Structures are given as C-alpha cells and as structure tokens.
Amino acid sequence: MRVLRATTGALALAALAAASSPSLAEGDAAQGERLYRPCAACHMIGEGAVNRVGPHLNGIVGRPIGALAGYEFSDVLSAAGAEGRVWDAGALDRFLEAPRDYFPGTRMVFRGIRSEEDRADLIAYMLEVGGRAEDVVADPDASAVDPEVAAILEIAGDVPYGEYLANECTACHRDEGGGDIPSIRGLAPSVFIAGMVAYRNGTREHQVMNTVSRRLGDEELAALAAYFSTVE
User: Fold this and answer.
1) At 128, which helix (H) or strand (E)?
2) How many CB atoms lie within 10 A of CB 196?
3) Which end of the chain is more exposed for a tag (fewer CB within 10 A), N or C?
4) Average pLDDT of the residues of the chain
C-alpha cells in the first residue's frame, strides 16, 4: 500500500490541529510510536499494512467507522458506519479513552488510555504514519486474507465437534464477556480464525492463548469457528 504523506511531523500535527478536538493539537508522534507498540499485535499501519486480527489503520482519520474492505466489524461499529459516522480525531480520542463505553459491544479487548496527552500522541503517530483517509491510495492486496487463515476458512467446520471443544474457551470467555475477556458468541469465523492463528504462530502474544491455540489443528479451529458463529 502506498500512503501519500503530506508527511512531515509538522504537517501531520497541523492536520491534527484542524480536527474537532483542539486538545489533540499538541500530540507528539514520536511518543505515539512507543504507545502504538501494543496495538501492533492486532493492527498494522504504514507501508504494506493489511487486515490481521484487527483492521489495518492506514487512513483511519476520516475513514467511515466500521467500513473497510475485507474486514468484518462488530455490529455496533457497522451500525455507526451506516449512520455516516467517521473516525475523526474526536471520535478516536473518545474510543481510545474507553472503547467499550463509547461503543458497547465492540470486540476490541482494550481497556483504554486514561491520559489525554497519551491519546493525542497516539493519534498524531497514526496520522503521521498512516495518513488521513483522503491521502491513502487503495491497495487491493490490503483486504487479502492471510493464506493460512484462508485455508482454514475453506474447511467445513463440524459444529457439534466445535461445541464439544468449546468448553475450554467458555471457561474464560463467558456469554456476557467481562473485564478484558470478551464474549466470543456470534463471532464471524474469519475474525475468530484470524485471532487464533495469530496466537498460534506467535504474532499475537498471550501466554494462555498461545498455549491453547498451539494444541489445536486446523480442523479444530474450523469447528470452533463454526460453532461460535452459530450461538447468540
């Protein structure tokens, strides 16, 4: 993907200053790079970014909420996009502060960033590296599914087998979610499998999930994905 940057740090911050929240104008993109590191486990940004467990974040500022080719968003984000809402700097600031308060029902497992300064720094970094929506030249490869994930999606998941396997998952992922552990009922197979593959190959780190996912073969992942997609 080619990102057209009006891109010096100064220009990125100038664009930020023009956004709806004046308090975001002082963001430090260099500090934002450090803050972005945990985000990188799920979200790519910059040259060559594609959708992974989460959508890529190139052009996030000015992009319609819950609308990006090749990614299945939670219902609450898709509904926001259908209403014409976009990720301006103010919306990003509120989401990053408390994602599940701003959009109850989001699948994103992230408590939020309490510091207004840190949020401003992170948004400044996303602007500098990912550009604004109008700066990004669409890359058809950005919506491509990871080949490993695509291969598992081709397997017809055995729902009863998935239900049998699900006990280990639901011991932590309860129906109503809670804390940092979301519910996975009704999760789209592509999202479930992408997440499990990321844990299995170590690109997403969580001690328990890395261990569990490495015990599961492709047939088991397909079965679990099929089962959880059927429960509400």
Assistant:
1) helix 116-130
2) 24
3) C
4) 82
Report the alpha-carbon distance of residue 48 to residue 32 in Å, rounded: 20
CA distance 193 to 222: 7
Is the dihedral angle over the CA atoms 117, 118, 124, 128 positive or is it negative? positive
pTM of the model: 0.63
Q: Tell me the backbone φ, ψ of residue 64, rounded to 5 degrees.
A: -55, 140
Assigned token pair, 138 = 């669409």
Q: What is the pLDDT of residue 144?
A: 61
Only one residue has tokens 């799920």, namely: 42
DSSP label at 43? Answer: -
d(CA 136, CA 4): 6
* Cα 63 to Cα 67: distance, rounded to the nearest angstrom: 8
Contacts of 186 (CB under 8 A, 6+ apart): 228, 229, 231, 232
pLDDT digits over 93-141, tens only? 999 999 989 999 888 878 899 999 999 999 999 999 998 888 776 655 5
- How many other CB atoms are found less than 10 A from the CB of residue 199? 22
Q: Say if residues 178 and 87 touch (Cβ distance below 8 Å).
A: no
Q: Are 125 and 33 in contact (CB under 8 A)?
A: yes
* Size of the chain, expressed as the number of residues it contains: 232
